[in-house]
Amino acid sequence: MERIEEYLEAILDVQEKEKRVARTSDIAKRLNVKPSSVTEMFSKLKEMGYVDYIPYKGVVLTEEGRRIAEKIKKCYKVFESFFRFIGVDEEKAKLLSCEIEHHADEDVIKKICPIISGFCNLCENCRVEEVVLSNAKEGKYIVLMAPPSIPIKVNECIEVVENDDIVRVKMGNDVFDLSKDIAKKIVVRRC
Q: Are 160 and 139 in contact (CB under 8 A)?
């Protein structure tokens, strides 16, 4: 399935960037394969219902083919953003994301999105309710994820009192000042 997804993603890229039908030569160049292999795959993708293919003219994605290609593309972007967020250099982030994009499911993506929600710009209207503490506005939150080395624990209710150069958090009667670096490692959801 991985190879099929690569083809669908390449076709989507051509359709979106160049606003036209994807031709055999486009995909052969993008995937570094022989044109005869592309033609064979186009026929296979048509049989599977992922593309509309006219020999010597090219292919366009069907609704199902587009759905799969967009899912893979989103996975890639989420992983690339995640790796960049944790400090992996751009080239390595791209390489790792390309390897993982075909193996992740929606569950994994849902777990990563809260971590990078304030860092990425992937979704026009991000519906992720969770944010990293460094991006939280003043108010009350429940802690979803936190490093064990800090006094704030998972499932505790906290209040962000200030979020400027430092993040000032109130928990019960205790007040903690956290650096932005530490606050980036804590995921919260507004109560």
A: yes
DSSP strand E in the chain: where?
51-54, 58-61, 130-132, 139-145, 157-163, 167-171, 174-178, 187-190
Task: Write out the residue range of the structural domain in which residue 182 sits.
Answer: 130-190
Domain boundary among 27, 46, 61: 61
What is the percent of the chain where pLDDT is above 70? 93
Question: How high does pLDDT run on average in the chain?
Answer: 87
Closest to 186 in 3D by CA, of 130, 140, 139: 130
Same domain, 147 and 174: yes
Same domain, 99 and 136: no
Tally: H helices and E strands in the chain: 7, 8
Encode pLDDT of 41-60 as tens digits.
999 999 999 999 988 888 99
